[in-house]
Amino acid sequence: MMTNPWHSVNPGSHVPNVVNAIIEIPKGCRAKYELDKESGLLKLDRVLYSSVYYPANYGFIPQSYCDDHDPLDILILSQIECVPMCIIEAKVIGVMQMIDGGEADDKIIAVAANDMSVNYINDISELPPHFTAEMRHFFEEYKRLENKTVQVEEFQNKAVAERIIMESFDAYQKMFKQK
């Protein structure tokens, strides 16, 4: 029997400061892969309509649950492109809050804990201003040719991100464990 990484991977022993994250989409990719919730495999949702590329490795935090009925999204900065379904220890540094299709769709921002080129960063305020501008631009633009709008609200610090992570773990427990 195949296990589903959303439910079977431990979120980590140092949450919410450091979390295990499962990569769906490598940095620099135009493919929009998503976890198939039933099988636990990755499926190609679509090729992005715009000629833009994911600015960071993109995935989710296992055993989390959000208002969009999916696990909590995470963007992990690293000097390398990580392969899909790789588990990465991710040091949380902030969150990008956005509205996608009228629903809150927060994106945790983290650095790869085992990448010396970025793991010294402790808070989103330490990132170059252009990087957060690039991330905002990507998420505001990548659905435009699909006639969909995404509104990036604000980038928030590590403390806000950690609170959102803990709330997503509580929501997961309510949704899946207390039945």
TrEMBL record:
Q: Which InterPro entries match?
A: Pyrophosphatase, Pyrophosphatase_sf
Q: Which reaction does it catalyse?
A: diphosphate + H2O = 2 phosphate + H(+)
UniProt: Mg(2+) 2 binding residues: D73
Cofactor(s) the record lists: Mg(2+)
Where on this chain does Mg(2+) 1 bind?
A: D68, D73, D105
Pfam family membership, one: Pyrophosphatase
**Top EC category:** hydrolase
Q: What is its EC number?
A: 3.6.1.1
Function, as annotated, reads: Catalyzes the hydrolysis of inorganic pyrophosphate (PPi) forming two phosphate ions.
Q: Which PANTHER family match?
A: INORGANIC PYROPHOSPHATASE
Protein name according to UniProt: Inorganic pyrophosphatase
- Which source organism? Chitinophaga defluvii
Q: Which gene encodes it?
A: ppa
